[in-house]
Structures are given as C-alpha cells and as structure tokens.
Amino acid sequence: MAVLATWLGLTVFIHARRATAAMVFAWLCAILVVWSTAILAERLTSAPDVAELLNRLELAAGSLVPAAALHVAATFGSEGRRPPARTAIVIAAYGLSLVMAAIALAAPDQAWDIEPPHFSLEAIPGAVFGWAWVVARLAMLVLAVVWIGLPLRETGADRARRQQLLAALTTVIVGAIGGALRIVSEAAPTDPWIGVLLIAVALGTAAYAVFGQGVFLAPVAAADAFLYSVVVGIGMTAFIAAVIGIDLLVRQALAIDVPIVLGLALVVAVALFDPISERVRGLVARVDYYGMAERLERALDQGALVGQTPARALEPTLARVARSFHVGNAMVLDGAGVAVAQVGTDPRSEPGALSLPLLASAGEPGVATGRVVFGHKRSRLPFTAQEMTLLGQAAEFLADLIALDVAQERQADTLANLTERRAQVERRGAELSQALGEVASAPAALGLRVYALGPLRVERAGKPLTSWGGEKAGSRQAEAIFAFLFDRGERGVGKDEVLELVWPDVDLERADLAFHRTLGGLRTTLEPGRRARDRGEAVVFHHDRYHLDEDLIVGSDVADLATELAAAGSATEATERIGHLERARALFRGEYLDDCPFYGDSSTVEDRRELFRGQLVDLLLTLGELYEARGDRPSAAACFRQARQAAGDELPRADEALSRLGSTA
Questions:
Q1: Which residues are CB-neighbours of 465 under 8 A, at least 6 positions away?
Q2: Mean pLDDT to the nearest integer, 369-381
Q3: Pick from 342, 318, 326: which is nearest to 377 by CA?
Q4: Shortest CA distance to 550 belongs to which of 487, 593, 494, 490?
Q5: Of 94, 133, 80, 82, whose CA–CA distance to 110 is shortest?
Q6: Rounded CA gap, 545 and 154, in Å?
Q7: If you count DSSP H runs as helices and E runs as strands, how many of each does the chain have, helices first?
Q8: What is the DSSP letter of 300?
C-alpha cells in the first residue's frame, strides 16, 4: 500500500497539478504513505522507543485519513464551485482531526480512546469520548460516499463523467469499508489487517480510475504517464542493481572499501537523466497533439469535459452546458446541418428553442461552421441576458473545438502552427468553466425581472413572486394591478381604470377601500422592507395616476425582445441577424400576459397582445426567408409554419414560401 500510494500520488501531482481535486487526492495519498509506512516500520523495528514513536505517527496519520477522504469527495463530487455547507463540514472535519493528531503525537495518554489510558472528565467517562471519536470518523467516511454518489443523478447523457463518478464511488466505498473496519477494530476484537487490506484494494481501484477512466488526467495522457513511469521505474531499478553489483565486484577485485563505481555511476546518472528521460518520454508518448486535451482538461478543471480528442470532447461539453442551464435537449450541427453531438432528443422542433451560430475565434469573421441548438429550459422560461452571454461563450468554445479538430486532421505533421490556437481554446475553456461554476451562485439583481410574453412571472433574486397581496388584500387583484402598471409603463394608470377592471360590480365606496388595501399589499410585496404607513417608492402617485418606479424593473422579456429586434435590424451579416432573431423567437412563451388574473382576460390588453403577435409573425417570416436563402430548408419550413399558426388566419406570404420549398401544411 505504501508503494502504490507513493506512485499514484506522485503521478497525479506531477501530471495534474492545476486541478484542485488532483492536489487533494495527492494529499490523501501522502497521508496514506506516512500511515502505512509507520505501521510497517513499527512491526519491523526492534527498538522499543522507535516503535513507540512510530505508533504515535501511525495514530496521527490515521486520524487525518477520514478527513482527507471527505475532502476528496467534496472536491471531486462538486462540479464548479463547491457548496459553502460542504466547505464548512470539511473545515470542521480537518479541525477535529488535526486536534486528535496533535494529541496522538504529543500526549497519547490523553487521546480519545475507548480503552485507558485516555482522556476523561470527572462527570464523563473516557470511553464516551473514545466512542464519540469513532462515530465522528465513521460519519466522515459515510458522508464521503454520499457526496460522490449524489452527482450520479445529474450526469444525464455525459457518459464520461458518469463512468468517472462510478469508478470514484467504487474506490470510496471500498476504502470507507476498509477504514470503518480499521476504526471498529479499536473497539472490537477484529483483525485490523482486514481493514488495511481493503484500503489497499481501494488504492488499486483508484489507480484504475486515474489511468483507466481519466480521472484527473485525460485518458491518453494517463496512459502515457502510466507507461512512462513503468518504463522509467524498471530502467532505474535495473540500473541501480547493475551499479551495486558492479561496485561489489570491483571492490572485491581491487580489495578496496571505497565505492568508486558507485560514485562514478551517480555522476553519470545526474548527467544523463534529462536526455534519457526525454528520449523515453518521446518513445512512449502518442501523437503529440493529444497533449492539448490534457491542457484543456486542466483549464476546465473537469475531466468529463475533455476526452482524448477535441471531436470526442463535443458531447461531454454539450452535456455539461445543458446540465448547468437545466436544459433537457441540445444538439450541435455542422455546416451541412448534420448532428455531430446530441444530448437528449432533437430540440429543433421545441417551442422556444434557441439556435446559436458556431463562430470559431480563429476562423473567418462572420462565417459559421455550424450551429448549436438548445431546447427550452425545464422551467419553460426564456433565457436571461446573463444566460445568453454564457451560452454564447459555450458556442464559441464548441466552435473552437470543431475548428481545432479539423485543423489537426489536416496538419498533424505541422503541429507547431497550432500553438496559438491551442492557447485560445485553453483560455476559452477556462473562462467557460469559471462561468459555469458561478452560474448557480452568482448574485441576482435586487430588483424585479418580469416575464410577460406568456404567463406572467416575476422574479426577485432568481426566485418567483408567488404571493402578491397582504394579509387583508387579495393576491389575484394585486397581481392584476401590477400587470396593469407594467403594461402601461410611463403612461401610468388611473384609479378609476383599476376599479372598472378589478371591481366592476362593487359599489364605489367599498371598491375604493379595496383598491387602497390591495395597493398597500402590493407595495409591501414589491418592497418587503417598507413600513406600514410609508408608501414606499415601488408604486408612485403623480399627476393623478399611479406608476411603477423605473428602477424597480431591472429586466424583462419585453425589453429583451426590443433589443434583439433592433440588433437584428442593424446587423449586416446574415448569420448575425439569424442569431438575434432566434434569441427573439425564444422569448415568446405564449400570448402576452396570458392567464393574468382580471387583466389578462380584459379588452385593455388586446391591443398590445395583437402588437406582439404581429411582431412574432414578422420575425418568423424574416427568419424563414433567411434560412431559405442559406439553403436550410427544414428550418425555413418550420419558421413559415409557425408564422402561419401564430397569425391565426390566412398568411399568403407563408403559403407562397412553403410552396417554393415544396412543403405541405
């Protein structure tokens, strides 16, 4: 176990030192080396004082093993930024373990053991503290298994990540059982070597996970590291054995005690180590461009994103992006419209699907190598501006992977020219990984974000508002007033208009009382910190009309729609224009303010609803014509059919286009 832990820990430390999880694993291996070596030396030494010192070292290192295993599970099992709760638990585990290790080294008679001598208090027997320490270590091991197993439910179509997690889970389970048996042996008459044997088996499964499943290292890089270490190890062993043998023969032949050959061999080894190691590395290394995958993996800090080649990295990368944004289906299409990577089912026919062009950073400006299509989010809400930016980064990264793969196939013999492009891919990979890790934990805006192109939904700090009124005000009435105020914008709303809309059959005095009570509840919902007698700033009264404060709404799909349509109108390249129109189309989830209480069923909203319906029809027709001009007949036909459906009646322009494309209704 000491030899295996040393070899495995050093290999991971040398070849994957940029990956945080790899460094934590190397730290665990170092602790296991100290622990197992102390056990072995303690059994072999004949000096009682040395045996006592080694026993203390064994106990100290053993105290740190469960905490280090928990640290590995917390780091490897968390994709992106680790949850704060896990970090706090790991810190607490290390704190307790370090205290126990220090006691084992400095004052073993005060250790938390079940049998005396041990720490105790007058009111509490020492065995209680001993059992508490046993339970704490067992809890660390159980929690490590749970943290590695939980991400398996979220891997989806990411097969590489799933295989890595399964290999890591097997390692942790076997190691946890071995550690538990070793810990229980302190309190029960069991053979401690059974636990040690299982921990050694766990190290063997860890070696399989690293070299067979690409955990911490890209598969080809792991294979090269394994072969290199084996060849160099055998060579060094043979060299040392030969030198010792020759030195003994020379000293016997010359009848001298000075190790002349050993000294000369040491000088030769120092002088020739670098060139020989480079020659061996060159012999065992595969095609050099596979090193790009290892550098990408380090930049992304996730082995699941990068396999052996850029082409094979497409699907794991797409799977992780889809998982980060809670998208069920996604697909990467090449320039001919052929799917080259897919997660789930074909998302192109989904309402609200988002299609982005693949523009490689090193390619011809404005020329797409294909496109990536993301299906709707599981929440059915459109993508926010922040999510649009991150998905754009993901599209650029996927385009760079495709472009790099094509370049490698054509220029395998001239890889020196790809250095700059590799650096760009690594940089974009690092930016994407950092951005994806911060998606879930990024602080949301303090104001409100409104989704009105469909069922009304309002969010604050990423969470939807579900209750609109106060204790004495109706939630549905307050939601209707908010929708009225939002729709009117700067024009504002008069009280009489609200009374006629929400309380048409109630006498004026009671309706007026209900209005002010409901408005007060709405103000409290929009400004949770508002005092009871303070009107606040969310809804202001000016010139006999009520208005929403302009700083209250920090974003809306209506504003995003106007931005995308304006950008599409000013775009000069067809690909850029298609991207803006696709993002605009993805914002539509249904009729404007559909299902909004009172206001959504009134005639007041119909003018605006008709306006947005016309905008949807116009952009679908324009988008279909752009796809038709580019030769993408399926996408064009889908746009024309959706335009005809959105129009709700005859649409000659769409019918003529479908006739040109040879499509039927």
A1: 448, 458, 459, 525
A2: 82
A3: 326
A4: 490
A5: 133
A6: 50
A7: 21, 10
A8: H
- The side-by-side arrangement of strands in the sheet containing 448-451 is 463-464, 457-460, 448-451, 553-556
Q: Does pLDDT of 252 surpass 90?
A: no
Task: Write out pLDDT tens, residues 630-655.
Answer: 888 888 998 999 998 888 877 889 88
Contact criterion met (CB below 8 Å) for 639 and 663: no
Residue 323 makes CB contacts below 8 A (sequence gap 6+) with 154, 155, 156, 158
Between CA 374 and CA 355 the distance in angstroms is 6
Q: Flag the least confident range among 212-216, 242-246, 283-287.
A: 283-287
What local confidence, expressed as pLDDT, does residue 45 receive? Answer: 87
Under 8 Å between Cβ of 561 and 587? yes
Is pLDDT at 611 greater than 80 in this prediction? yes
pLDDT tens digit sequence for 213-235: 667 765 555 555 565 566 666 77
Assess contact for 316 and 244: CB atoms under 8 A.
Answer: no
H or E stretch covering 541: strand 539-542
What does the alpha-carbon distance between residue 352 and residue 358 come to, in Å, rounded to a whole number? 19
The β-bridge partners of 377 are: 327
Q: How confident is the model over 538-571, as pLDDT tens digits?
A: 888 888 899 998 888 989 999 999 999 999 999 8
User: Cα(257)–Cα(252) distance, rounded to whole angstroms?
Assistant: 8
- Of 395, 214, 385, which Cα lies nearest the Cα of 322? 395
Amino acid identity of residue 21, one-letter, is A
The DSSP code for 298 is H
Query: d(Cα 13, Cα 70) in Å, to the nearest integer?
Result: 19
380 three-class SS? coil
Is pTM beyond 0.70 here?
no
Tokens 């596979």 map to which residue? 290
In whole angstroms, what is the distance from residue 450 CA to residue 112 CA? 58
Tokens 């605009």 -> residue: 584
Write out the two tokens for 599: 């206001």
Q: What's the number of CA atoms in the CB half-sphere (13 Å) around residue 106?
A: 6
CB atoms < 10 A from the CB of 387, how many?
18
- Bridge pairing between strands 448-451 and 553-556: parallel
Q: What is the DSSP letter of 227?
A: H
Mean of per-residue pLDDT scores for the chain = 80
**Chain centroid to CA 278:** 36
Q: Which residues pair with 333 in a beta bridge?
A: 339, 371
